[in-house]
Task: structure prediction
Amino acid sequence: MHKEIISEIIETGLSSVDEVEVTLVSGESVSIELKRAIAAHAGESHENALIIRVIASGRIGSSGTSTLSEWRACLDSAIASSHLAEAVPWGGLPDPVSLTGDPMVFDSSIRTDPDIALSFCNRLLEGASEYPDAEVVGGGAGLSLGSVLLANSKGIWYEEDHTSVSVSLETIADQSTGFEYDRSFSLDIDPFEIGRRAAELASTSRNGVPIETGTYDLLLSPIAFSGLVASLLQSAVNGRSVHMGRSFLAEKLGKVIGADHLSVIDDPFYPGGLGNCRFDAEGVPSRKNILIEDGVLNSFIYDLKTAYRFGKESTGNAQRGGLGGGVTIGMHNMVFRGETMQEPGEGRCISINDVIGAHTANPLTGDFSVEVQNAFIMEDGIIQAPVRKAMITGNIFEMLGQITGMGPTPRRVGSVIVPPVRISGMRLVG
Amino acid sequence: MDSRLRYWDIRHVSGEHTGIDIDNGEIESAGVTFFSKAIIRALGPRGWGIVAVSPFDPDDKGALRDYLLRAERAAVVTAEDVVLSDAPDRKLLPVPPMKEDPNCVSLEEKGALLMQIAEAAKVPGVSNTRGTYTERVEDVYFLDSSGHEASFSTCRSGYSVMAVAKQNGTMQMGYVRDHSIDGLNLRGRTEDGIKAGTRAVALLNARAAKGGRMRAVLDPELGGVFAHEAVGHASEGDLVKDGASVLKDQIGTAIGSQIVTIIDDPTMHAFGFEPLDAEGVAGSRTAIIEDGILKRFLHSRETLAAVGNGDVGHARAMPGDLPIVRMSNTYIAPGDARYDEIIEECRDGILLGGSRGGQVDPGRGVFQFNAEFGYLIEGGELTEMVRDVSLTGEILSTLHAISLCGNDLTMHPGYCGKGGQSIPVSDGSPHLFLSEAIIGGTGDA
Result:
């Protein structure tokens, strides 16, 4: 039935515009939410969304609706939207290619079964009970199944299924808090370890000591590093920000912007990556893009519109979620690589699991000052004491040059993949 | 509908979302999307069973029965003994009248008005401007198992304008936003564009602030963020109930200086106004802190029954999402100090103005937020402008450090995120003087 409606949308649209693109997203999920250590909510969700984009003389219009049967109103709205948009030298939607391989974020064994979610919750709690002084505040587990169908008037008809499994747990011991989570497309997560780790963080962060204001080496966990660096770096290599003069990196292509062993790759084929895909939101085949290689800025990322507008090529980085059903530019999996060191490295360093206020960094310049969360003073790899409170101040782009090494094991934090990162010469305000 | 359920409700929200994005003088995109979402909650013998659907068809009479059966089945695995408090006041608060209904203004005209504001930001020195308009029309329908039924419509709209200034390889930005619940706010607002542009240029020559412990003054916007982040979140009944708030067991305790009174008021006609909360309860003004004493928490029916001390009517939700305890319009009540008295009293310190956002860990009682700009205060006078200045602290010690409250309360609209849901709020404060604050900055000066 969907097939017929989509064909009808494209056919109807073509009577008044040059090109039509239709995306149909559907999904279902189950989840269980813990309040303290008790299952308090159990639920399911069912969701459909239709997104239509049209292009007329280089003007792109878009609209979306949750009600598929109301596609005519949605199409009319997309056409009206195209009348307002500024024209770009549009070179056409992509032609179909044959996509090889299986869907990359899909595990056929996953079902939206509340019993699996409940067993994950129980494992989370068992893990947390390893630290009896930490109380569980909340958490939960969820499983979801979904699919994306992308069709356009050039003949593209791509379908991709995806699955997701997630768990999280939040704990408190006195006034010390802990949080840990994981998300995967397959059942390879370890809820016991997530629960254990959440409780360990709260328990071991108790009785924090003050720290002198000064300059320190930091060991940023994958969560802290990705929270601080990933979204800012992503917007700085976004082709639209670059060409519109809103990127710190706009003039730095080919220049050294980080430590000489640092590489950052957008890899849509990373094993286990949550952002894996064979095509982007506009049907452009995904590809690996090396953004930073050996410390040198190598490339920016583009969707079709920005690429056509500025004489570049789409890098397959269009993502859904733009205003009014439009697309934005984003990464698939942002993979950080650097010189591997023994973790955490020698001498004194402050190990930081998370930060409060990462999103308050200056998005243009990268200047930031944020509060640490679950931080520990370490000496030659041995924890000396937890830090009661401290603020890290610095600049994210300068920090890329101060990376001295990375731990051996990368971790997936959403669509960022990074090991623990050691950074020298950072200022802490105690 | 089903006797085995102790309680159920449905909240269906349908509507339209309009967005316009202007980038450097060109309309990048402008369009409308449509949604129809519902959340069905059912209370089984113990906890909640929940079904979220998008789209929801209100004309399908069998759908509600089917979803309730699903919710009832889902609830089987829950173990929490959920009790709901009474909710006596269920009368819809009147939606403030629109000065000019955005629905009656064409997308083209809205685009042209936004363009004027964004273009006004192009003051000398500005290299890029961006203007964004968002409008959300929501038609809300609520029904619960007691037969309580209500429906209302709201339209929230607003804009933001950003300017980037560039000079000798450095860049800074200025940012102004305003959102409204009582009609289109795009006319006659080019001043805001100029303000954004002027601030971006001024920040180019501002030095980075030096961090450390010092005396500080917060302007009404940042003071409002303090009220919201540091106090408001920690007073949310769900966090108190689950043991995740530093304010639990503190009712009746002096948690701040005597001049501090903090209020959350969903009845106020500001951006966080709700005619009825997401559980069908009319909101009421809740004084969280009165004269420094913690008095009340913000509650849903469930958290009031579990925790006590406070008012229901504070459960809110995005369309199709679960009601959770949220703030609405949160503010520090004005005192009697004049602005110049506050600066004079600070003597040597720093003024923090505007907000780039903030975050709190309510369990640990620690907050962090960033100002858009600052001024050094030297000898009781504002001197040099500084940039990238932030404030962190422990909630309780910072509340005790508030030594003067100004007489100039103003509210600022924005959005607040919690549990993956972003909802409209406003917060505000008069100018505040803190006798000691922990200031963050990257500078040496």
DSSP finds eight helices and 21 strands in chain A. The first helix of chain A runs from residue 2 to 14. The mean pLDDT of chain A is 96. The first strand of chain A starts at residue 19 and ends at 35.
